[in-house]
Amino acid sequence: MPTKIEKDSITGQMTTGHEWDGIKELNTPMPRWWLYTFYACIGFALVWVVLYPALPITGATGLLGWTARGALPAQQAAERARIEPMLARLRAATPEQIAADPELRGFALAGGRVAFANNCAGCHGAGGQGAVGGFPSLADDDWIYGGSFEAIQHTIRHGVRANESDEQRGIAMPAFQATGMLNATQVSDTAEFVLSLSGRSTDAAAATRGEALYAENCASCHAERGEGNRELGAPRLNDRIWLYGGDKAAVMRSIAYSRAGVMPSWQGRLDPAMINMLTIYVHALGGGE
Amino acid sequence: MSVIPPRAPDVEEASLYASHQKVYPRAVQGVVRRVKWAALILLLGLYYLVPWLRWDRGPNAPDQAVLVDMGHARLFFFWFELWPQEIYFLTGVLVLCAIGLFAVTSLFGRVWCGFTCPQTVWTDLFMWVERRIEGDRNARIKLDHGPRDRAWWRAKVIKHGAWLAIAMATGGAWIMYFNDTPSTSWAMLTGQASLTVYGFFALFTATTYVLAGAAREQVCTYMCPWPRFQGAMLDENSLVVTYRDWRGEPRGKPTDPDAGDCVDCKACVHVCPTGIDIRDGQQLECIGCGLCVDACDDVMKRLNRPTGLVAFETLKNLAASEAATKGMAPGPARLERGMSVRVAQKIIRPRMLVYVGVLGAAILLMMGAWLMRQTLTLTVLRDRAPLYVQLADGGVRNAYTLKLANKLRGELALSLVLEGPQGLRLLVQDAGLDAQGRPVLTTREDGITQWRALITAPEGLRLRGSTAITFRLLDAQGTSVARQSSVFLGPER
Question: Is the whole-model pTM more than 0.85?
């Protein structure tokens, strides 16, 4: 509350009339236009709140009806239209042709990285490292169905044991103990022999007993020395890579109850151009053949 | 217990806001004014013409001498070319400018504000246009306070038209520092330019028009931070625009024998672009342009008195003259006494040594950084997912992304060698091989190429945990031109 406006003797300016404990303040007026600028900012803010979604209330979208989410489809469509010529070229080309064209390959790798993260990484892991328990690594040099462009493309298109495509991968392995074909001891012996294929057997006698059982029950698919069979999707048994774990318990479980991993068929779910991009990307992860 | 009623105010509430008093600076001739014209012509000439300078950088590079290429994230300045990750050179230049400004200010006061600041220069230009159209101070005051007749409208329309034209040229020139000048100018003139270009053009046209036409001295008084902290740069040895009150007071008629040299003609007030009275002493609003010095010298010459009643003077000398002439009567003796105690400006003082030292250090640092700048850099990013790949035969593989940045014109083909445990196998996807079977990485001209390298450790190597490796790039002569260390990871056991 101003009490006494006076002229300050030193500066020649008027005081505001306020006084606290003997301290007075000079009145140096602000230019009035500055105040109007401040009012204009407030006015702008009010207009903004009316026109745009500014209030933290669900459904308060403002008079213009504009929302970031509402603007997204148009932006997506524009982006799609921008890359459409590239996608058309990717659809028309085989993976080999894409790989031979640096421009297409670069585009496919960039697009494949995103598509992989969106659709595949859930099971196969970021970077395709896979996981024990039936999720194959796509970065190593071991392929159940083959690692050529064509094989990868086919697997992505038709899936594995998902019953979504007539050309799907994978056949069923018998559950030897569950169906009574082998008893528990025989399963153990067979498993011991399987371990010996990669030089990890600890019980030579059991492995020798298992050899005959293996030749009778397993070799037709997994081949004589566990080389596997890509035609059937029978994994190699003589290497270090195990889809469900390579210790004896895991191998016994596989023999006794069988395993049957499933991968959906992506044909019809994804744009053929995207399937080609994924093919190129997966091939480049390091295991491509 | 009694309640003391609040005392009724016995005064009117004072307004905390005041309407802006328009300043009508008068034209002035003199030494300082000539220096200011020279600075204005030089600076504006540079501003408008530099975008048109051409500079040949070869076939695939812009041929503009000064260009900030936002699209390709490159900054071109004559023979320098900066990448975004080298933006600290720009920061360094700004640091140099700041320290230079501090040094100049502590020596000569607000010469930046008075002579070279864009706000001052463009305002000066706008005032010159205003004078040509509406006349000098008195004519302008009369015009503004007179009737709004045909003459008023004519003057205002022509003036604002001319201002807008200058503002558009200014906004347009600003655009050209970020785009190719000839083509963009033509596109803008023919209505072909992008909305972004026109938007920024409109923005800078508007700011030029408003700041130099309407806001003027209020930018310095109310918006700019410099007047507030320049007090920290100034000391009693700095040159500032000063009124020698020991010589001028008491003010009086030229014929009055008891009066000092100031005849209270208000010439210094009328020419001041910020509308202050320099005779009130040092003020925040004074931008140190020295026009009052010219105005007062002009009056003193006509009165056959020595010039320098208002002058660029150090506060130290002012205080010395003040003390020496205390109690003396006005007249030639007082003037001579006051001037005789003045000393030459002390240039070398701790403050200046610090400024010059820091300035020199900053310059050396910048030069050193520029000379040691890597024009070819190799960056290695290990794949983190998967950390390593277990191979069927028991081997281990790691994947790396190699980024090869070449900051020079022309392309290179370099051989990649791996330094690490014997037996590691290096494969770079899509890379050719040289005569020794090493992968060849090619660079892009002034760009980055990216490669994916796979390193395999066969089972016999039994690499466990983390192993240090180094990628090295060799040119055709076998000289190492870039290197980067990384690690190779294997299983823990």
Answer: no
